[in-house]
Amino acid sequence: MTVTFAEQMQGLITAVLMVVIGMLAIGWTTHHADTVIAQRKMFLQALSLRYFAGLAMYAFNINSVVIGMGDDAGAWHGLRYQAFLDDPENGLFALPTYLVNSFVGINRGYGPWIGLFFYLTRLTGLFTVVSISAFAGAMTVIVVYRLGRTLFSETVATRAAYLVMCFPSLVLWSSLPLKEPIVILLEVSAIYACMRLRHDGLTPRHLVLCVGSLLLLLSMRFYVFYLLGAVVLASLLLFRSGARALSPAQGLAISLALLGPIYLISGSLKAHMDFFEKRANLESAEKFRTDVSKASTVEATRSGIELDYDLNTSQGFVMQALVGSAHLLLAPFPWQLRIGSLRMFLTTPELLFWWYIFFRWVVPGLGILFRQRLNDLIPIFLFMLLLGGVYSMTCGNIGIIYRQRAQFLPYFLIFGAYGSVRRREDPWGRPFSEPVHQVELAEPGWPDMRVPPQLEPAWGPRGPSPGRPLGLTGPGPRPFQVPDGPRGPAS
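Structure (tokenized):
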């Protein structure tokens, strides 16, 4: 695809606009105000990496290799909706109806939101959408950093942010005019806001962030909205922690007051219920699995997975869940790479990196967190379990399952960063190579009186303090004090 100089300039102007918006958004914080400068540097690095990766892919026509025909049609859809708003009979007066209609139907929101941006800024074209995708990918890095810092520590947060920033597939999806990076950003933002609401109580900015992210998901990927909405409600109403957590009545009232009018105005609830009634069953899952494994485009890429398990039997259901989960986590496997297409073969370097991270860092980190921090991480675990279950039961194509894995990578990389730190640090959070403390005993035989960390609930009785990792909340180790002897103070 040939990109004109005018489109490149519009994309550059859009990138500058996204930098301004990102800088302002990053400054909207109180819990992470002490690291705003570092966050802005990470944002600029991530945005630049994604923008120039997009330039390189279209300059050398790599985009036609890594994605299918028509997958990057976001700019084309945006131009269609911009033309609707440019019509003299519509314009700004039709904007309320235009916004409401973006929630009607099945996943119609991406095109209308891009078209609205085109209409308001007059910046159109392919690279404008690439800049928007790069912005979404860069903001995902910041939200991952804040989530890791909230749950663990500065070290874990920084390591997780740079893993997300440089992970090849996450860079790839956010360098193309796709809605994947926007969906991932909305999911991670809703999870982060839910974490803060669980433990800080009703804070307006986190409430706006959570509800706004969910509503945008409703227009772009509606089934994720229902899954994540259920996770948020369950986390706020059932699995609560923290002294200032929302009461069940508050959580229910907020949910009805904010989500109810959207359903009543847009009518999307009926359309979605009709969809679930027709397709949310095992027969439809089997049909979808078969269709994506035997489509004509699949024959060319040799990415189909022949799974003929009968989902109506217990054995078939369990086997599909296990095999689908394995593909979601680790595919493509070596025997699939051997017979796959060039597109599949190009994933080999990333796969080797991912397999190393997964088995060396993610699995040990998850083992520790399941034992020690399960309640704190309920929203993340529930969301990954529900969405992963849906993708596993419909697994029939390596390319699709590889693309779906990107929605889980931010959380896996946070767990991997935690696992890598735990492999190198002691319970105080310092490297093993450093001494825990320097002690010179006046007389031999005195016991080691180091005070172990005081393990409290991760969020503490008064909630987290700004910038304080939510894990070991007790004081650090006290230096050894030799008690006074019968002849006065020890010297």
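The chain has a mean pLDDT of 80. The CA atoms of residues 334 and 348 lie 9 Å apart.
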